Amino acid sequence: MYIFFFAFRVLLAIIPQALPYADEMWQGPEIAHNDVFGYGWLTWEWTRDKPLRGPIYHSLFSLLYWILSKLNLDHPQMIAYGPRILQCAISAIYDVYLIKLLTLEGIRNKAYVILVNYTLWFSLNCFSKTLINTFETILFTLALYNWVQYLQTNHNKNNWFCRLFVILNVMARQSAIIPWIFIWPYHLITAKTNLKGRFVILVINGITLLLLFLFSISVDSLYHGKLTSTFYNFLEFNLLSGMSSFYGVHDRLWFITQGLPYVQLGWVVSFIVGIYSYTKKGLFSAQPLRLLYYMMFTILILSLSAHKEDRFLLPLFPIIIYFICLGLEYLDKINWKKLKLVLVILAVISNISFFVLMNTYQDVGALKTMAVLRQRNATQVQFFTQCHRTPFYSFIHQNISMTFPDCSPTNDVTSLETYQLHQDSANYIKKKLQYSKLPSHIVIYNYLMNDNVQKLLDQYDKIESIYHQYYTDTYFEDQKDIYIQIYELHQ
């Protein structure tokens, strides 16, 4: 099964060309490329006095790049797509253990698990991409599988494996601690044991947290070359200072009213049926409803942050898929098979159609743009686009000068270069071009072009106009039918 899952994920990594999340490149391959090859672009999370990111996730790609360089196989195509292939190999492990986990939790029909997992558009869209949220989901699934094994068999081996995966996961992404803030105390309260047994559980939890912080601080400090904790820095930036709101503010119920329906589309009906079936076991019973409690608590904590994104729900996908499959089995149980068939058909059609739509009309121009620049032997590139919207050195794999408008978080949005670019594109571009050598290539969105900008580019020829996306929102007005235009300096 693993080989099949891996091959399927690889197809999804190579064929679709969409790049919907900046973090796919800028929190993984770009950092790894800089570490191994000595040149690249580090985003503000890595360069600030109190860095927000640690090396655990991107070190996987650093190791891959190092091996390729030692074997003289660091060709641009290998550098560009190697991390995605590696991610597919890891995601296939998730596919295998998702089935094992849901089987442990009582799902009898493994075909349902495969069907739902491979037709949820959001799963198709994320698990072949180098997103740290994907890595977080995989480690959470492995941890949860071992945890359920431990609850059912009382084997200490599974308990320690679970805790090992949790420590690794939190070191990679700090928010991965959220479900375990509930899971471990919940077990302490509900475990069928005496006072001595509860004390042992408490001590094990304390040792786990101690090891987590010791390993986290040690690895972070060694990597960044100074005493630091990305766990604390992340907490301070996102919650204590509230700077996460810089990236958008959503209402408290966003994950429930918009996030969950959006990532499931047609499967959300089966999801609701599954929760109904689950709660029939008794809402306040000790163990049977633990998955529902885990999910509710995680969503509650995530909702406390002003900034919310659909990919923050990704670690909950094992539980979401469980409820969808449980809903399908419940419809079988009450003999509503015709209704189930209709729901499945609608769910599959809605999800697959949306997946194709998103990978055909949204965020599809970035990889093509970098491929053109590489083919044209660009020596200096100036991007007049939104920040971090294309790969950089991890795709082009050439030590050339490239830059884009800065968008580091600030309390004064008008000081952002991206804001100034969209406010008056001609004025911003004029300032950028008059104080430096003219770049060999310029990359710009079509909606930023006007007569004044065109005059500034009179020494350039437009060599490509690449369709990028159907819709985007900017600081001033929404834009539709966006193209990425590439200009080349006259020879």
TrEMBL record:
GO cellular component, one term: endoplasmic reticulum membrane
Enzyme Commission number: 2.4.1.-
Any one GO molecular function term: alpha-1,2-mannosyltransferase activity
Keyword Transmembrane set for record: yes
Signal peptide coordinates: 1-20
Organism lineage string: Eukaryota, Sar, Alveolata, Ciliophora, Intramacronucleata
Tree of life domain: Eukaryota
GO terms for biological process, alphabetical: GPI anchor biosynthetic process
Membrane disposition: Multi-pass membrane protein
Localization annotation: Endoplasmic reticulum membrane
UniProt similarity note: Belongs to the glycosyltransferase 22 family.
Record keywords: Endoplasmic reticulum, Glycosyltransferase, Membrane, Signal, Transferase, Transmembrane, Transmembrane helix
Name of this protein: Mannosyltransferase
One Pfam short name: Glyco_transf_22
Sequence intervals crossing the membrane: 127-148, 160-187, 199-219, 231-249, 261-279, 291-306, 312-331, 343-361
